[in-house]
Design goal:
This is Acetyl-CoA synthetase. Keywords: ATP-binding, Ligase, Nucleotide-binding. By secondary structure, the protein is α/β, with parallel strands linked by helices. It folds into 2 domains: 407 residues, ANL, N-terminal domain (Rossmann fold, 3-Layer(aba) Sandwich), CATH 3.40.50.12780; 105 residues, ANL, C-terminal domain (GMP Synthetase, Chain A, domain 3), CATH 3.30.300. It is built from 16 helices and 26 strands. Strands 9, 11, 12, 13, 14, 15, 16, 17, 19, 20 and 21 form an 11-stranded mixed sheet that branches. Strands 4-3-5-6 form a 4-stranded parallel sheet, with helices on both faces. α3 packs parallel to α9. The longest helix is centred in the first third of the chain and has 17 residues. The chain is globular and about 70 Å long.
Length: 529
Amino acid sequence: MTASSRRSLPDGIGYEQLCAQARSPSGPMNMAAQVCDDWAALEPDRVAIHELGETSRRVTYGALQELSRRVEAGLRARGIRRGDLVGVLLSQSVLCAAAHVAAWRMGAISVPLFKLFRQDALASRLDDSGLRVAVSDAEGAAVLAPFDVAVLTEEALPAPEVHAPAETGAETPAVLIYTSGTTGKPKGALHGHRLLTGHLPGVEMSHDLLGQPGDVLWTPADWAWIGGLFDVAMPALTLGVPVVASRMQRFGVSQCLKICAEGSVTNVFFPPTALRMLKAENARIPGLRTVASGGEPLGAEMLAWGREALGVEINEFYGQTECNMVASSCAALFPARPGCIGKPSPGFRIGVIDDKGHETEGEGDIAIARGAPSMMLEYWNNPEATRDKFRGDWLLTGDRGRWEDGYLRFVGREDDVITSGGYRIGPAEVEDCLLTHPAVATVGVVGKPDPVRTEIVKAYVVLREGAEASADTLQNWVKDRLAGYSYPREISFLDALPMTVTGKVIRKELKARACAETEAPQMTAGGET
């Protein structure tokens, strides 16, 4: 078995042909076999994970399988059986991967948890899921001490045991991943064993056919989130591509460059926030073959910087916890279009629909056809939210978009789109424009209630350290580059923006702030009325 034999997108075939050949995953399937056991049987000495930290070690598939069997033995000793929940409170590490593999092999459901969560965030997820056993380390065990959760650490693992893997299929529950809470209380998205197979086409596209000789994949995104776990770690292991594991409590440019060098990284998934920080320091990372990014649109300026500074075409991809990697750019298959996400991943049908669920040629709600390969089975313990997520046979992403010659253009979150003077304005485009100004470090744009225009465009700006720019300057910057109606009529300067733990601007908090300013006017910088 080779990396190329595991890929879903073979070389030398055009995009349209790949889409025509795509099939939804079905039949017997277990992610533990895909990411570990199949490789361990055929190439046990093949490097699976390069773990960096105080010491550096390369862990083979055989060693990963042995550790996962020790975890499985420990879970069985604590009464875990098929269908039970297993928390995984670990950062990027070999043990983190082994814990998921162990749970999947025995037919249990793994629940990734973020190491930086504290009491309230953990309590909400533990109470909702009801899990009572978790795999962690000493630090995590201390955090979990106030809860009724048995903690299994590596030091306490028993000797490995070999059990027959559970008989599971594409839709057998395998992993419960909680949303980051950008649009409300975090919800648990329950996924089946088809999830990994469903991710592969989009992951391969976003890295220009990942699985080429010499590929080594890394991301600063934590493996507690779907972006780190299923956009990077598990697909890499499935494809036989070594994955670098290195814990970063907070992204820093110098540490990022060090990891890329020590890990001989050739392929990276950078969240937009990380790219902005790299761009701010005009960082260079030699040896990269591909860079992928997702979570927020990047804009033409960032893409141009990627070509110049990183030497690659940054491939943007699109998805969410409930249905991920549904669309991507792929420089190896088709040219990028600035401002567009890319094209549907093979095997996915994306629709831009109206409020009746009919596809439309204009702007509409971005939706995914029911039964997509990476689509969740349901929200955990929340049938009402599951029903509300669909409009007929379409899963609603909550985003607005439109088609442009086969490319999907992201306009903005449904709740974020600004209605001003009869115009609908996507905040992402305004943010992208402001980010091209040399003084702007980061920005969030929302609609502020206005009695005349319904809403006005309001920008909250964080300037680069030592930089200066007036509101008038930034307003004119946008006026000169976008439509006259879309410039921010008010700009406030902040020291920092509210962010999720995954690095996304929490626009709902900015929206609440803007509404509060409307009720009790505050001094802001600039603003034409």
